[in-house]
Amino acid sequence: MIVLGIAFAAFVLVVILWMLLSHRLREKYAVLWLVIGVAMLVLTIFPELLYGLSQLLGVQVPSNLLFIGALALLVGVTLHQSWELSTAEDETRRVAEEVAILRAEVEALAKRDTGTDQHDRL
Length: 122
Known about the structure:
With about 120 residues, the chain is mainly alpha-helical. About 90% of the residues lie in helices and about 0% in strands. It has helices spanning about 1-20, 25-45, 50-55, 60-120. About 0% of the residues are buried. Pfam families: DUF2304 (PF10066). InterPro entries: DUF2304.
């Protein structure tokens, strides 16, 4: 079972590195996922670390500590993604407003130039 866990953790690390090197994952997210992958590998190789940490924190069942950690991580990632999405939506709205203003200015200039051309012909 340990070999399967090590293989899975190594696979996760390889996928993260591949995504990072092929620019499918941004560096700021890769650090988090690399830390998670290394933690998975370390806890798979040395499961007694989880037992020691659970005793230190007063958690009776080490798997409960693992689940609480995973839940806290997911909440943190979700909160960060929500923040990133809000920032992107604000930027998209700002750019759309600027484009609308520029479009109106271009149309006004086009109308003014068209009116001037007709006036010069007379």
